[in-house]
Amino acid sequence: MPFTVPVLPEGVDPAWLPPGAFRAVGSRRTLIQGSGPLVETVHGEAAWACARFGGGVDRAAGSGTSAYDLVFRVEQGYRDEEFACGRSGGTTVVTASGGRGLLYGLFHVVRLGEDAFHGERPAEVHRPAVALRMLDHWDNVAVHPVMGQVERGYAGGSLFWRDGRARGESERVRAYARLLAACGINAVAVNNVNVHETEAHLLTDRIGDVAALAEQFRAYGIRTHLSVTFAAPVVLGGPATADPLDAGVRGWWAEATARVYESIPDFGGYVVKADSEGQPGPFAYGRSHADGANMLAAALEPYGGTVHWRAFVYDHRQDWRDRSTDRARAAYDHFAPLDGEFAANAVLQVKHGPMDFQVREPVSPVIGAMPRTRLAVEFQATQEYTGQQRHVCWLGPMWSEVLRFRPDAETAVGALADGLVAVSNAGDDPYWTGHPLAQANLYTFGRLAWDPGAGPGDVLREWIGLTHPDAPERLVDGLHAVLDGSWRTYEKYTAPLGVGFMVQPGHHYGPSVDGYEYSPWGTYHFADRDGVGVDRSAATGTGYAAQYAKVWAEVYESPDTCPDELALFFHHLPYGHVLRGGSTLIQHIYDTRFEGVAEVEAAREVWGSLAGLMEPARHARVAELYEEQLRSAREWRDQVNSYFFRKSGVPDARGRRIY
């Protein structure tokens, strides 16, 4: 059956693949040589573009190409996802060993636009630096009374599930797969890592629902994964135990996994959250996390599947009076001693920071501490602690800093990782991500996963060019003005200097400086009349700083060498402490809160000036959200500044109003 480009429901934004982005491809004479399902996808995309812009597409097995402007050719000698692109004799040629590479080559040509058809250039090979580039959806099949339809989702409901059933909207799912493939994503998990009873059945009697999704993702080279509960044998009527060393349990998982692959032959594997925040795990049986992961790895191994075992394990019932227990230490303490004990097809999925996707925290010391274990680094595209897609907060610069960080002073995180994973920020909102500008985060993650060394600014330029083809210079400049520094703007009016949190409990939106200060979650700032911050030094604190390699342990150990932006993460400092930037701690807190609000005000004005340069509905949605962002930023400024003024008794040196 010929492949056709998915048709979006009326009113749904095409995100970064509007028809105009394909103009350069669609106006050319194109030849496609090769066969296979993904080659058919390439052909369908090219035919769709040519039907719009007057070009034409031929299929041929021969070698003659001189009559064509653009050629896609299957040619052996490349790795699975590699492609080469060059131009000679007036013909742009994309070659790859199979359809997956040709598909990525097609989107590369779309990004280049007219530049792909000018001049002469030798064939250049493009390959992903990271093999696994994955999105995890925290979607619930049934609406959870606390977590809702999508846990930490800020873009409406799930694309896959509604009212306990599969939505069955294949065209929208396939369009989503197209978006993901266009930025290099090759894997997706379709349900929440917090697996409830309804979701547990996706593994067995509801695997057909997952298979239907996998069919749509397969058309764009994306493998489907499933989050499973470690206690699945017990929950689903198997053995009365989930002990990973029990022969009956191992047999149950082997049989269940075999049935999964009967339905989804290219199934990617399992994602598991175990012994974390109430989820069951191997600790209940006196077993290690390696024991648990390896049991599932053994079930998946015959089929080439992988288990993603999340390292987000910590004591979430901490006594706030206990200064010796440090949540930041937990992942390293639990997992570093297990290095070398995980199976070859087990991937330890580690959050990029030691806490929980805060606007600023150091890179997790687990990354770089387990050289004999496959690691995937996890990011959060959904903006749980960064404005919940009601605030503009482009996270590309943050992610790039993490990926370029060198845990051992030699090798960057992006080169150490076997995979990069992000919690999805997409839903059934007409703009996919709730806030139209949050699309930039999804696109940027995919492109940085393909090339962790890419400049985030270059990636943002790509997204702007694809989303707004032929945009006037004023629109391009305006989009850069509101996005480029938005992460640091958000940081300026929220929690200072890496201390984190200070958010409303539960939903995590908006300020509450002491919201979690006396809770069991281990998210403390320890502010008192004399100072603020957590002493994580080896000399006098929790010892967390010593979990790093020597080169970083020495930097973080002392306030004199610790970077200012992490000063309160690593140290409890007096309000009069002079930061390396020259300001006192308390004055820095005051100044940056006021600066953050002023920057939001300026960005709102820039956005207002762009009216008439894009679709009115898109402009109006963002303008409305800017009003909420400004209201929230002012609230953050006033609550944080007033809190620390009342704690310290030190007035603002600039005499501004603090309540």
TrEMBL record:
Residues 433-656 form the Glycosyl hydrolase family 67 C-terminal domain. SUPFAM superfamilies: (Trans)glycosidases (SSF51445). This is Alpha-glucuronidase. InterPro entries: A-glucoronidase_C_sf, GH, Glyco_hydro_67_C, Glyco_hydro_67_cat. It holds the Pfam family Glyco_hydro_67M. Residues 124-415 form the Glycosyl hydrolase family 67 catalytic domain. It comes from the Bacteria.
